[in-house]
Sequence to fold (328 residues):
Amino acid sequence: MGLARRLYRGEIDVDFVGKWRLWYSLSGFLLLVSLAGLLFNGLNLGVEFKGGTVYSFEAPTATVETIRESIREEGVHQVIVQSAGDGWRVTTESLSEDTRAQVQSEIAKDFNTPAGEVSIQAIGPSWGGEVSQQAWIGLGVFMVAIILYLSMAFEPKMALAAIVALIHDLVITAGIYAWSGFEVTPATLLGFLTILGYSLYDAVVVFDMIKEVTAKLGHTSKMTYSMAANNALNHTLIRSLNTSLVAILPVAAILFIGTTLLGAGTLKDLSLALFVGMIVGTYSSLCVATPLLVTLKEREPKYQAIARRLASTGGGKKGSKSAAVAKG
Fold:
């Protein structure tokens, strides 16, 4: 608690930039594990993307196993059962019209539900391909808008650092989905776009402070760019952590309480993306975007000259390890 209190009061100066090797190694490991999950497991795409048949009905006394067994008796191979209160949502592979009707009758008979109250939704794979295409277009437009905004509001190197951090967040979040087997639905894509916006917000707050602090650097400055950037990062640290904590708590409630205790299974598609993305986004804005920005900026002649002058006079010892990013 003493450490948390000192951190909250700003009494601790964390050398984020100086520990860039640690952050890069950790991110590299997470990215490697995520890519392995995507390569070997792949994403569990929902029926909206690959096509299939969806049954919705109410059966308060039913269980996941009894529903799965009932439907498989009709020769259906892929059966995904999700609960939502007293209601159920069952997703299968694409079925013929006759098989759909047989499954509907079997559900009605086994769970004492009128056949008319067992709704059927058949989704073709072509519609799923359309959804995927629109999702990629939306992601592309979002990325281009971010690059243009950051390039105009700040500078291209900040835009590049932010984009790398966003891609970092997307890959790791997607990797979590691949390893966990959670279904990817349109709600998941909305969650992905939301975490991109959240991660961008966090990066903009940090970059704005860095821009303000580093604008004062000149030939007589007593700080290198690395030192100034790290100082700015520490000034925004508590704000970033507080914002993240306040945002993560309700999402955690939806994910762990809503889906586990209340059975609101449809919410987990969105809440897992938000939960993982917010945590990873906070980490990347502090430990990936800023060190990467310093790596790019410390290569500029102006900041190299400041670093050399301070190193020769001993005034840049505190930031010497951070300055090594430019030489690394």
Summary: Residues 317-328 have pLDDT under 50 and may be disordered. The chain has two domains: 10-43+127-327, 52-123. Residues 4 and 87 are 44 Å apart (CA to CA). Residues 52-123 form a domain with the Alpha-Beta Plaits fold (CATH 3.30.70.3220).
